[in-house]
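Quick one:
INPUT:
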């Protein structure tokens, strides 16, 4: 086919359709095109909460060989998750358990170090959720550590909670 035309509509207006999608690689049945969203040259403006609807006619429904209209919708997410309720649940020996919540499903990472939160100890949560807890291992006793939390949602909007630049502090004791 080489190319197909898709219609794009946006709940807030602003996304003109139709656009042409190129078949990549040729004869693959895969059609794609980058649609740059945001502000600036070559970008299409969207706002948080807008719904973008994309539709096209597939010439083969995969069953009877008949054409079928295909529609997909996405909700625009421009807001990073908020981190709240950060607390140290336990500090024992060479480890600490730290918990927090986010206002939307997100992954998380704690970074800790002795001079700042830029250190070499990290703990990561890869399964999205709203209630998080991690264990930081490898801490040295009687050594203060500073930590910060990064949270990212499915749209990769990321926020870093570093207690207003001060970072939070833990000290494992003997």
């Amino acid at each position: 086919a080489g190319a197909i035309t898709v219609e794009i509509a946006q709940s807030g207006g602003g996304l003109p359709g139709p656009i042409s999608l190129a078949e990549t690689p040729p004869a693959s049945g895969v059609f794609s095109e980058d649609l740059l969203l945001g502000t600036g040259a070559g970008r299409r403006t969207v706002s948080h909460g807008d719904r973008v609807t994309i539709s096209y006619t597939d010439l083969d429904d995969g069953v009877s060989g008949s054409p079928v209209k295909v529609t997909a919708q996405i909700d625009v997410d421009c807001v990073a998750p908020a981190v709240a309720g950060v607390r140290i649940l336990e500090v024992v020996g060479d480890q600490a358990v730290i918990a927090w919540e986010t206002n939307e499903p997100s992954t998380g990472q704690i970074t800790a170090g002795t001079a700042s939160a830029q250190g070499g100890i990290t703990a990561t949560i890869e399964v999205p959720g709203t209630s998080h807890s991690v264990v930081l291992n490898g801490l040295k006793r009687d050594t203060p550590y500073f930590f910060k939390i990064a949270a990212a949602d499915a749209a990769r909007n990321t926020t870093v909670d570093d207690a207003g630049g001060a970072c939070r502090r833990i000290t494992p004791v003997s």
